[in-house]
Amino acid sequence: MAVSSSARKAFYAILCLAIWQAICSAGLVSPIILASPLSIVLAVRTSGSEYLAAIPFTLFEIVVGICVAWILGVGAGLLIGTSQLLSVAIAPILSAIFAVPLIVWYPIMLIWFGLGAESKIVFGAAGGFFPIALNTVTAAQSFDRRFVTLGRSLGASGPRLYWKFVFPLLLPPIIAGLRIGTSFVVIGILVSEMIASTEGIGFWISTYRTMFQTGDVYLGILLALSACMLLNWPLTVLERRAGAWRDAELLTFGR
Q1: What is the domain range of residue 105?
Q2: Which residue in 27, 40, 100, 166 is a FRET match for 113, CA 20 to 30 A apart?
Q3: pLDDT at 1 over 50
Q4: Where does residue 124 rank: exposed (0-12), middle (13-18), buried (19+ CB within 10 A)?
C-alpha cells in the first residue's frame, strides 16, 4: 500500500524531533545553545502566559506595518515604474537605500518615535516597503507594451483592456514582492522589539535570552516562525493563482 505524502512528512518530522531530543538528552550539545523539544514544551507552562499576552501587541504592529508597506510600496512602485523620468531618477536611489542594512536607521527612529509601537511599525514598514516598491518598479518596467497594442487590436478597451492584459501580467511579480516584503515587515518588527521595547514577542525573546532560558527563547522563535508561515502561505497561493489567471486570460482572449 502506497504511503501518502502527508504521512511521510509526519514520519520525517517525528524522526527529526526524536533525533533532536536524543542529542540534547545525551548532552552532546549544551542546553544553553540548543534547547530540547521537551524543554520547549515545558516552556509553554513557564512562559506561555507572557507570550500569550504579547501576541496581540506584536500582531497589531505587524498588521499595521504590512498595510503601510503594501500601500506605499505598490503605489510608489507603480508611480516610479510607469514614469521614465522617475525610473531614472529615483529607482537607483531606492536600490541604494535597500542595500544599506536597515538596522542602522533604527536609533534615529527611536529618537523620533520613542520606545512604543510607533517606532516598531515604522521600522517594520520601512523594511517591507523597499522590496515591494522595487519589485513593483521592475514589474511595471518589464511590462511589454505590445500586449496593450495586441489587446486593442483584438477589440479590448478601457477597463476590459486592463483586466484582460495589464493586471494579469503585473499581478504575479507584484504579489511576489508583497510576499518578500511581508517577511521583512515581520522580521523588522521582531528585531526592533528585541533591541528596544517593553513588550511584544521580541521583547520576551530578548529577556529570556539574557536569563539563559533557552527553551523559552526557542518558544518565542517558534511563534515568530509560525507568524511568518501563516502570512506567507496565503500569499504563495495567491501568487500561484495569479499566474494561472494570467495564462488563462491571455489564452482565452487570444482565441
Answers
A1: 36-254
A2: 100
A3: no
A4: buried
Q: Is the distance from CB of 179 to CB of 234 less than 8 angstroms?
A: no
Tell me which DSSP letter residue 144 carries: -
- Whether the CB-CB separation of 205 and 86 falls below 8 Å is answered with no
- Whether 19 maps to a domain, the answer reads no
Distance between CA atoms of 89 and 48, rounded to whole angstroms? 50
* Length of the chain, in residues: 255
Q: Which residues lie below 8 Å from residue 1, measured CB to CB, with a gap of 6+?
A: none
pTM value is 0.81
With contact defined as beta carbons under 8 Å apart, do 9 and 17 qualify? no
What's the average model confidence in pLDDT over 96-123? 86
d(CA 4, CA 27): 35
Contacts of 132 (CB under 8 A, 6+ apart): 69, 70, 73, 74, 77, 177, 178, 180, 181
Q: Does 152 reside within a domain?
A: yes
Region of residue 91 (phi > 0: left; psi between -120 and 50: alpha; otherwise: beta):
alpha
Report how many domains make up the chain.
1
203 within domain boundaries: yes
